[in-house]
């Protein structure tokens, strides 16, 4: 029995360990969706760091930063549990369509002086 060819083994390992990017090259709509989601995720992560940093710079209080995170976390958990139970019991399609369509309007509602479009 001969030992396996090293390049063939590495090629097999890399094919399993890497992400298949062919759908991004083949389908324009999927590529645009993926890029948009990546940009939105990066913006969310910048916000998750910038807001607590700004609160700390304004107040110099770690208690205020902790209170901010608690206030942001509690509705996420409580409404997530209620919404999850409701979505399991009912058809989620109308609610997901409504949430998707209302997302661009949510930021505009809280910042009337901002021109988003």
Explain this structure to me?
There is one protein chain. Helix 3 runs antiparallel to helix 4 (62-89). The protein is extended and about 60 Å long. The protein is mostly helical and 117 residues long. It has a domain at 22-84. Helix content is 81%, strand content 0%.
The global form is extended
Rg result: 22 Å
- Give the helix level as a range of percent: over 70%
| SS class | mainly alpha
Which terms summarize this structure?
117 residues, 0% strand, single chain, 81% helix
In short, what is this structure?
The chain has a domain of 63 residues. It is built from five helices and no strands.
Topology:
Elements: H1 6-17, H2 22-26, H3 28-59, H4 62-89, H5 93-110
């Amino acid at each position: 029995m001969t030992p396996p060819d090293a390049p063939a083994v590495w090629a097999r390992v890399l094919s399993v360990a890497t992400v298949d990017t062919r759908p991004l090259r083949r389908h324009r709509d999927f590529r645009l969706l993926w890029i948009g989601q990546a940009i939105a995720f990066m913006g969310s992560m910048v916000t998750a760091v910038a807001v607590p940093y700004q609160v700390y710079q304004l107040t110099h209080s770690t208690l205020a930063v902790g209170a901010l995170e608690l206030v942001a976390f509690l509705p996420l958990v409580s409404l997530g549990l209620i919404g999850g139970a409701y979505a399991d019991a009912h058809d989620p399609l109308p609610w997901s369509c409504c949430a998707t369509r209302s997302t661009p309007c949510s930021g505009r509602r809280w910042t009337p002086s901002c021109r988003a479009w």
